[in-house]
Write a structure and sequence with these properties.
By secondary structure, the protein is α/β, with parallel strands linked by helices. The longest helix has 19 residues. The protein has eleven helices and twelve strands.
Length: 319
């Protein structure tokens, strides 16, 4: 695979390209990196690559001509006539967000061209007529596209066949499987009282694999729940996520860690929309309606008793 980088600062790259996975990929013949200086494609004595924006405004805009000429020199100038397996990418905050899926996509190309912007921006005709797409490495501001290009190169280089000796290590990385990775530990098993989880010392490969998978799921659910919508989950994974509040997780304090228990909110049982006094009154027991077996007849008033006795006496006398 070949990656070409169009930049006005070619000296930005050599030191980094000679280290790590990028160096390994180049030494193994899996990756060729060509740094193309855009000033070599100018036609004035000052080697100008930027100019003032039409319509005014602050900042300078990178010119379209040097970029167009550089792409023609690489054999990828005409968008409709580009060789199959090649792609021109403009590094820009307006582009789609760079992800592991895109890195895997780029690793399958034969020729990737990265155009590094600078200053206020790049003439819009580069995006409209020359680049196949725009790409952003995040929602933050860089001085130029050069650091972003290094991110792309490094992410792609380690995916090329034979670059990483154990590809299982790549497949278990965060984002590659769609989830965040589980934590890892090395010797010593205890340091300053901080212990490695016992399950990792058990030697039981099945338990270790499942514990790491569950921790990966838990971390993703807590830190990047948006990733779960696109992750490949087994029925066992889904059951674990459904009961994740009660599931143990790996912890550097030794063994397992349980999520903190949630306390019941006393306000949750209070009826909504009613004052406290009214709600309390509704909870008080009310007296049963109608006569009961234990109820006694209420005594009659004295005046009523005298009137009743007088009527009875009159009736006996025949009055």
């Amino acid at each position: 695979m070949k990656i070409s980088v169009l930049t006005i600062f070619p000296d930005f790259f050599p030191a980094v390209l000679g280290e790590g996975m990028i160096r390994a990929a180049r030494e193994k013949g899996r990756l060729e990196v060509a740094i193309v200086g855009l000033r070599d494609f100018t036609d004035d004595s000052h080697r100008t690559t930027d100019d003032y924006p039409f319509g005014g405004g602050a900042g300078m805009i990178m010119k379209v001509e040097p970029i167009d000429r550089a792409l023609l020199g690489l054999g990828v100038g005409e968008k409709q006539a580009r060789p199959e397996g090649s792609r021109v990418v403009l590094l820009s905050p307006q582009g789609r967000a760079f992800t592991q899926e895109i890195a895997i996509e780029y690793a399958g190309l034969e020729h990737l061209v990265l155009v590094c912007g600078r200053y206020k921006g790049v003439d819009e005709r580069v995006s409209a007529h020359l680049a196949d797409e725009e790409l952003s490495v995040g929602d933050f501001v860089l001085s130029g596209g050069e650091p972003a290009a290094l991110c792309v190169i490094d992410a792609v280089a380690r995916l090329l066949p034979g670059v990483v000796s154990t590809f299982d290590s790549v497949e278990s990385d965060s984002f590659h499987s769609g989830l965040l990775d589980a934590p890892y530990y090395t010797r010593p098993a205890t340091y300053r009282g901080w212990s490695v989880p016992e399950v990792l010392l058990s030697g039981h490969h099945g338990r270790i694999a499942r514990a790491r998978r569950e921790e990966s799921l838990r971390r993703t659910a807590e830190r990047r729940p948006d990733l779960l919508a696109h992750a490949q989950l087994s029925p066992e994974d889904r059951r674990y996520l459904a009961g994740i509040e009660a599931a143990p997780a790996l912890d550097a304090g030794g063994g397992t860690a349980m999520p903190p228990e949630r306390k019941a909110d006393p306000r949750a049982t209070r009826p909504k929309g009613r004052p406290r006094a009214e709600a309390a009154a509704r909870r008080r027991p009310t007296a049963p309606k109608g006569p009961s077996a234990r109820s006694k007849p209420r005594p009659k008033p004295a005046a009523q008793l005298r009137s009743s006795r007088a009527r009875k006496t009159s009736a006996r006398r025949g009055e």
